[in-house]
Amino acid sequence: MKLRALPVLAGAAILALGLSACSGAAEATGNSGAAESSSAGGFAVDENTLVFGVVPDSVDTETNYQPLMDYIAEISGKTVEYHESTDYAALIEAAVAGKVDVASFSGFTYVTATNNGAKLTPISSIVTEEGQEPGYYSQAIVPVDSDIDSYEDFAGKKVCFVDPSSTSGYLFPSYNLLEAGIDPTTDITPVFAGKHDVSVQKVGEGVECEVGFAEDSEVEKSDAVKVIDETMVPGAPLVYSSTLPDDVSKTLIDGLAEITIDDIIAAGIDGADTDSFRSVFYATKPVDDAYYDLIRDICEETEAEQCKA
User: Fold this and answer.
1) CATH dotted code for 23-132+236-307
2) Which is nearest to 60 in space by CA: 162, 161, 197, 194?
3) 131-189: per-residue pLDDT in tens?
């Protein structure tokens, strides 16, 4: 497992422009959202409900998370409502506005949301196999029959990214392109697919996108693309709203900090005992705010507008 060095790069100011999409919108919702959250006694909706937010990674997002939501409902005694935002920026806005109680963020969306006023505390990160540590791969992909084998070959190409707020689908790929001397806004034609699986699909088709990026769990499902490089990124955090009452926060921390799929099955969640859930969840490992300092370092080096309060 490797993690690329992330030096200060020429062209960082241009990258900053590409990362600025959601900051203003998130800031604009901050004050009104805080008032709404306060009026609900610290809950996004009410004391009987927990709103579970996720970044829209794939068409299977809700199905993948359902057993975990059922488990949260079991340990908390509350109704858990699923909230999938239309895009990454919308989830950031929802968090800033206090409209989610517990959520699965990417590392970059967590940093962006908290920088813009979202009151969130990380609990843990999901791992999918025994012995893993938090973290996953951002993979550079090309059509399976392509002769492209390096980042330098991306110059002049139509490149699929996932979302401007995606850790593995934009932030780290942009660094790697810059490291190869390619400006991700002017030396290529960027295409934002919206979801990781869609990015994989479009690259495999080789029409709308000639090359691209996505997280490893979606790439491995396709036989139409191949990986030419990969970079490990910080694991995505499970977070809770810091405005929740202390007893609810403690329940979420105790229940989500370090559990295995066997714990969830033992809690009576039958939907967890399936091949589909086992493919996306094995256990959780604790992470804290400092774990995401690497992403903050990237933000500082690039002066990315999206990272600024």
Assistant:
1) 3.40.190.10
2) 197
3) 999 999 999 999 999 999 999 999 999 999 999 888 899 988 988 898 899 988 899 99
